[in-house]
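# step 3/5: fold
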Amino acid sequence: MRKHHPWGSRPEPTSAADAPAFISGLLPDDLFSEAPTVSIDRDEIVIVGRIPAPATGADASEADRAAAESGRIAQFRETTRDQRIQLAQQVEYRYERKVAWGVRCGSTEQMFTRLAAPVMTRLRQPQRQVLDTLVDAGVARSRSEALAWCVHLVGEHAQDWLGELREAMNSVDELRKRGPNLD
């Protein structure tokens, strides 16, 4: 069930706090060679997993290795398409967010189709997460306002500050959970 944002402008999606664990249990053990990374924002869940690199000879050039890795990724994308669509549908239904996939093979990483959410310009998930943190913390009332604020604040310490802000928000969330239930 979606809850409404404090300013009423947009309903909050279903909580995805347990999404990494759910996805870990949902994915077949043989889909990736190690546990995938899962990143989440209000709009999208991105799942990036590692697949085995193809065997290349010791005398293979860096370009040959990159081409072999690219070929392995293309083969993985085609042979797992139906399976990934079915898995994504389950995750999308449960968490009310689009799912995007990516693969790491050797030193090559490739993202498959990803959501680009309109916010004055098209931003990928890492940039949207910055804006959403500012909105959630009450620093800005909208993504547009948060984006304007960010332009003025760009600097080398921005990531440290946002990490501290997320930690503080987590502390506030924990305190709210322990507080009285007013329903």
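# step 4/5: annotate
The CA atoms of residues 88 and 99 lie 6 Å apart.
# step 5/5: archive (pending)
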